[in-house]
Design goal:
Blueprint lengths: L2 E7 L3 H12 L6 E7 L6 H11 L3 E5 L6 H11 L4 E4 L5 E2 L3 H11 L3 E5 L4 E2 L15 E3 L1 H10 L9 E4 H7 L10 H10 L3 E4 L5 E4 L7 H4 L2 H18 L7 H25 L3 H14 L1 H5 L3 H6 L3 H19 L1
Parallel strand pairs: 1-2, 1-4, 2-3, 6-10, 7-11
Antiparallel strand pairs: 4-9, 5-11, 6-9, 8-10
Helix pairs in contact: 1-2, 5-10, 7-9, 9-10, 10-11
C-alpha cells in the first residue's frame, strides 16, 4: 500500500536530513515524502532540495511567506494521494520499523481509521531508543479511546499518527484556532470515524528543545490547560453526535483539567510564584468549584509522572527556602 509522509519545516535545517533519513530507512515499498517549507530563514530549503536531488521519492514545496504550521498541515492533507498519510514535523523522528508495523496493522483492520504509538520524547544530547521489538498491537473501539483520552491527563502521542486517507478526508483539517492541542482534537474526530490501532511502541519520537517555536507556550501551564479545554469544547460541540455518554465524558474531561489546575497551582505556590498559582486556582474554580476546595488526590494516582514531578517541586522549594535562610 502507498504511504505519503508530509514533513512541515520551518528553520529546522539542522534536523531535516536526519528526519528524512529515518523515513527513508523504513521498510516501505511505495513511499513518497513531501517537504513543505514555511519560508525558512535558515538553510532548510537548500537541505530539502539537496535531499530531493538524491531521491526521486522526495518532493519539495516552498512557501514565499510564513503561513503558520496549520497551513502546511492542511496543505499536506489536500495534496495527499496515497492510501495512508503521516504528518511528521521536521524536528521529530520516526522509530525504526514502526511505520511498517502501523501499515501492517491498518491493513489487517480495515475498520480502523488510524494508528497511534506510545508517547516518547528526546531532549538535546539524548539518543533515540531502539525500534519496534514486537508486532503485537491493540485495537480499540473509537468511543473507548475517546473516553480514555478525556478521563486521563497522560500524554497522547497525537503528534505523529498514520491515518487512512479515506478517514482523513472525512475528519477534515487541523483546526488553526487550536495552537497546542490541534492534533489532540483531530485524533478525537478520527476516533469517531472508526477503530484505533494502538501500537506497543512509539511511532515517532517528539524532540523537546528550548529553540522550539511552541516551547514557551508548552511551559505556560495555564495556557496549556485552556488550550486543552478549547480542544474538548470544539470536539464535543461538533463530534459528539452518536457518541455514547458524550455529556458525561465531556464533564469528566473538564474535571481532569480542573484537577490539573489545582496541583499546578500548588506547585507554583511551593516554588514561590503566588500570582501564577492564584490564576491557575481561579481558572480551575471556574470549571469545577468543588474540585478546587477539596484536594483531588486521585489525580496524583491516576496520572503518570506526578510522583516524580512532586518530588522535584519539593526539592526546588526546599532549596529556595534553604538558600533564603
Amino acid at each position: 500500500m502507498s504511504v505519503e509522509v508530509v514533513i512541515p519545516c520551518y528553520n529546522y535545517a539542522h534536523f531535516l536530513e536526519q528526519c528524512v533519513g529515518r523515513v527513508l530507512s523504513q521498510a516501505v515499498d511505495d513511499l513518497r515524502i513531501v517537504i513543505i517549507d514555511n519560508a525558512s530563514t535558515d538553510d532548510s530549503v537548500a537541505v530539502a532540495k539537496r535531499l530531493a536531488e538524491r531521491d526521486s521519492r522526495i518532493e519539495v514545496i516552498c512557501h514565499e511567506k510564513n503561513l503558520g504550521p496549520h497551513a502546511s498541515f492542511n496543505e499536506g492533507i489536500d495534496r495527499a494521494l496515497a492510501d495512508y498519510l503521516l504528518i511528521l514535523c521536521a524536528d521529530d523522528l520516526l522509530v525504526e520499523g514502526a511505520l511498517g508495523l502501523a501499515i501492517e496493522a491498518l491493513e489487517q483492520m480495515p475498520e480502523a481509521s488510524f494508528a497511534i504509538g506510545t508517547y516518547a520524547e528526546v531532549r538535546p544530547l539524548e539518543e533515540v531508543g531502539n525500534g519496534a521489538t514486537t508486532n503485537v498491537w491493540n485495537v480499540a473501539d473509537g468511543a473507548d479511546f475517546i473516553r480514555r483520552c478525556c478521563s486521563s491527563f497522560d500524554h497522547v502521542a497525537a503528534y505523529a499518527i498514520l491515518v487512512r486517507r479515506s478517514a482523513q478526508m472525512r475528519a477534515g483539517y487541523y483546526d488553526p484556532s487550536l495552537v497546542l492541542c490541534d492534533d489532540f482534537e483531530l485524533v478525537l474526530r478520527l476516533a469517531r470515524i472508526g477503530q484505533v490501532i494502538e501500537l506497543p511502541t512509539p511511532l515517532a519520537v517528539r524532540r523537546i528543545q528550548s529553540g522550539s517555536i511552541s516551547q514557551p507556550a508548552w511551559n505556560d501551564k495555564l495556557r496549556l490547560l485552556k488550550e486543552r479545554q478549547a480542544a474538548l469544547d470544539s470536539f464535543f460541540a461538533k463530534g459528539r453526535k452518536g457518541l455514547p455518554d458524550a455529556g458525561k465524558i465531556y464533564r469528566i474531561g473538564l474535571q481532569r483539567i480542573a484537577e490539573a489546575a489545582f496541583w499546578s497551582a500548588v506547585s507554583h505556590l511551593a516554588r514561590g510564584k503566588p500570582t501564577i498559582a492564584l490564576n491557575l486556582f481561579k481558572y480551575g474554580y471556574s470549571l469545577r468549584p468543588a474540585t478546587m476546595l477539596l484536594p483531588p488526590f486521585a489525580y496524583l494516582v491516576r496520572t503518570n509522572g506526578t510522583t516524580k514531578r512532586a518530588k522535584a517541586v519539593m526539592l526546588e522549594a526546599f532549596g529556595r527556602r534553604h538558600g533564603a535562610s
